[in-house]
Amino acid sequence: MNDVLFEEFRTGVRIPPPPYLTARKVNTLGSSIKNSFGKKNIDEAKAKILQEKKMTDKKKQQVESVPPYSDDDEFDFVDAYSDEPEVADEELLPENTATSAIDCAFIGVGGGGGKLAKAFLDLGFNRTLLVNTTIKDQPDGIEEGNFLLIPGADGVGKDVKLGRKILEENSAMVEDSVRARLGNPDWIFVLAGGGGGTGSACSVLHESLQRNLTASGASGKVVYVISKPSSQELLNSTIARNYESALGELKEYPHIVLDNERQLQLLRNKVGMLNLFPMANKNFAKLFAQVLKLAETHSDIQTFDTKDLEKCLSTPGRMLIGSTVIRDTARRDLGAAVLTGCINSSPCESPSGDSKTGTLLLIATSQMASDPKVSKNLEAAFSYVGGRTETLFSGVYIKEKVPGLIAICILAGCN
C-alpha cells in the first residue's frame, strides 16, 4: 500500500485499488437459499395470498347474506337454546268419520249429557268429550281421551249451585281440554240432563266455549241439547228447580229440549226399561246426524245446503226436530200430515205459535218424484209448512229403499 501511495505522489496519477478490495461482499448463505428454494417460496406465498383472498370474499358474502337485525328477532335465540323438542299434539282426538256439512264437536256435561254424547260418539263423531264431576257416571266403552274428570267433588248430588261453582272454578281446564282434544270446530253442541246438578249448570261454560270458537275464527255457535225430566221425575222439587234453572239460563241461546216423558210414550211398548233411554239417545242422535248428512248431500231436485243448515241452527231460542213417514203420498192433506206427523213423533216439546226459521227435508223414491200428482202434493206440503214459519229451507232427496215418503222437519226460534 505504501508503494502505491508513493507512486501516486511521484507521478500525480491515482492508481485504482486492486479488484479484491472493491468486490462487493456476498451473503453466501442467502444466495444459496435463493438459488435452491426461492422459486418454491414464491409459489407458496402466491398460493397463500390467493387462499386468504378467497376466504375474505367468502366471509364478505356470508355477512351480506345475513338479514338486517330487527326487534322481532331479539329473542330468537330462545328457541335455539331450548332443550324442549317440538312434539305433535297427542291429545287431539281423531277426526269425525260421520258425514256432516259442518265441522262440529259434541260435549256431554253430567251423567245424562254424557250418555247422550256416547250415542253421537258411536255414530262416528269422534270429536266428542264427556265432562263430569265423577267417574261413576262414565258410560261403558268410553276411551280415556273422550272423558274429562273435573276435580273438586265426587259428584254434586243434584246440587246445581255446587255444580255451577265447580264448573266455574274449572272453566279454564275445560276450555284447555276443548282446545287440545276437539281442535277448532265451527260448531259445538253441548248435551246435558236438565235434572242433575252438573248438567243443569252447563251454561256456566258458555263464555269459555264461545271464546274458543271466536279465537279460532269459527263461523258457528254453541248450541245446547237439554233433556226435560219425565213427569214422575218432576215430582221431585229439586229436579224441577234444576230443570227450570237450566232452561232459564239457556233460553236466549239456540237450544233443543228433549222431553223424556214423550220419549217414554213413544218407546214404552217397543223396548224394555233397561234399554229405554239408550234407545231414545240413539234415535235422536241418528235423526240429528241425518240432518247434518243431508246438508252435505247433493240433490238434483232441491238441495238443503250448508248455509241453510247454519242459518237454522243459529236461530236463537228453542228448536224442534222430528220426523215421520207417509205411506199414502196421494192424500190431499199431505202438507198437514207431514207437519203434524213430525211434531207428534218428535222427542221435543211441541211448539207454541209459529217459528222464526224452519226446514223441511223430504226423502222420496224416484217413482214418487216422477209422478205428477205426488209431485204436486209435495209442493203443497212445502207451502203448508212454509206458512207456519217466517223462513223455510227445504230439500228433496231420492232414495230407493225407503218405506214411504220420509219427512224431517226442524222448527227453530219457537216460543
Notes on the structure:
By secondary structure, this protein is of the alpha/beta class. It is elongated and about 165 Å long. The protein is about 45% helix and about 15% strand. The protein is built from 15 helices and 10 strands.
Keywords:
415 residues, alpha/beta, 15 helices
Range of strand content? 15-25%
> Order of strands side by side in the largest beta sheet?
3-2-1-4-5-6-7-10-8-9
Estimate the helix proportion, in percent: 40-55%
Q: Kindly state the number of beta strands.
A: 10
Spans of at least 5 consecutive residues with low confidence: 25-37
Order of helices and strands: HHHHEHEEHHEHEHEHHHEHEHHEE
SSE inventory with pairings:
Elements: H1 2-11, H2 19-22, H3 28-65, H4 77-81, E1 104-109, H5 110-122, E2 128-132, E3 147-149, H6 160-169, H7 171-182, E4 187-193, H8 206-215, E5 222-228, H9 237-250, E6 255-259, H10 260-267, H11 276-294, H12 306-313, E7 318-326, H13 334-344, E8 355-364, H14 366-370, H15 372-386, E9 389-398, E10 405-414
Parallel strand pairs: 1-2, 1-4, 2-3, 4-5, 5-6, 6-7, 8-9
Antiparallel strand pairs: 7-10, 8-10
